Amino acid sequence: MPLLTMTNVQKRFGSLSVLNGIDMSVEVGQVVAIIGPSGSGKSTLLRVINGLEPIQGGDIVVDGISMASGRGLHEIRKHVGMVFQQFNLFSHLTVGGNVMLAQKLVLGRGKADAEKRGRELLAKVGLEEKWDAYPSQLSGGQQQRVAIARALAMDPRIMLFDEATSALDPELVGEVLGVMRSLANSGMTMLVVTHEMNFAREVADRVLFMDQGRILADGTPDEVVAQPKDARVQQFMRRLTER
């Protein structure tokens, strides 16, 4: 059974249709890069998977749990971690406090267990020494790595990254992509909305190309990025190389 299945998913904002019949599935351990022009529905796709936006049709099933079922949304959120463009750290809490908070409130972990898990994950992203620092004392890249550790602290089955490097200075992008590469290599199931084509080529098992709320291409990085057959994908890739 796929870890994630989307069947004829529809999403509208008023009269504006943003997702138009999305059908896709993701297997355990797959890394899927999602590319396409601005406004194509990429971020909305991630937000509906995490239950941040309701859908108007179809169904989303995560780890065997249907969003359409009565208990679906709450249970699905336990299985899905998400990292946004902005870091969204609580400025009044230390790094350690940020990483422990949801563990205690949502998972019901005691302080000692939450701290142990938090320190393990901060070490994984190379920031264990920042436990007592505040977000304002960190660079953008460090804040984003803390945000990744915070999401991982919930022990998700799948991680969603919504252009996690787009708000960073170019020199800080590499440190965040490095953490994401490490997660991919460890077997984490990941959906990554990105404009980093090198990351998509090197790390992703599959690449989806979206335009106007539809998936126009779904294949290996070579099939979608390097040698696309769809004319719209060819046009998009050509414009990227002309920049």
Characterization of the model:
With 243 residues, the protein is α/β, with parallel strands linked by helices. 39% of the residues lie in helices and 25% in strands. Strands 6-7-8-3-9-10 form a six-stranded mixed sheet, with helices on both faces. A four-stranded antiparallel sheet has the order 2-1-4-5, with helices on one face. The model has no long low-confidence stretch (mean pLDDT 93).
Range of helix content: 25-40%
Low confidence ranges: none
Q: Label the overall shape.
A: globular
How are helices and strands ordered from N to C? EEEHEEHEHHHEHEHEEHH
Side-by-side strand order of the widest sheet: 6-7-8-3-9-10
% residues in beta strands: 15-25%
Radius of gyration: 18 Å
Class computed from helices, strands and strand pairing: alpha/beta
Euclidean distance between termini CA atoms:
41 Å
What is the average per-residue confidence, as pLDDT, rounded to a whole number?
A: 93
Summarize this entry quickly.
The protein is of the alpha/beta class and 243 residues long. It contains 9 helices and 10 strands.
Q: Which SSEs are present, and which pair or pack?
A:
Elements: E1 4-13, E2 16-26, E3 31-35, H1 42-49, E4 57-62, E5 65-66, H2 72-79, E6 80-83, H3 95-105, H4 111-124, H5 140-152, E7 158-162, H6 170-185, E8 189-193, H7 197-203, E9 206-211, E10 214-219, H8 221-226, H9 231-242
Parallel strand pairs: 3-8, 3-9, 6-7, 7-8
Antiparallel strand pairs: 1-2, 1-4, 4-5, 9-10
What features would you highlight for this structure?
single chain, 243 residues, alpha/beta, 6-stranded mixed beta sheet, 4-stranded antiparallel beta sheet, 9 helices, 39% helix, 25% strand, globular
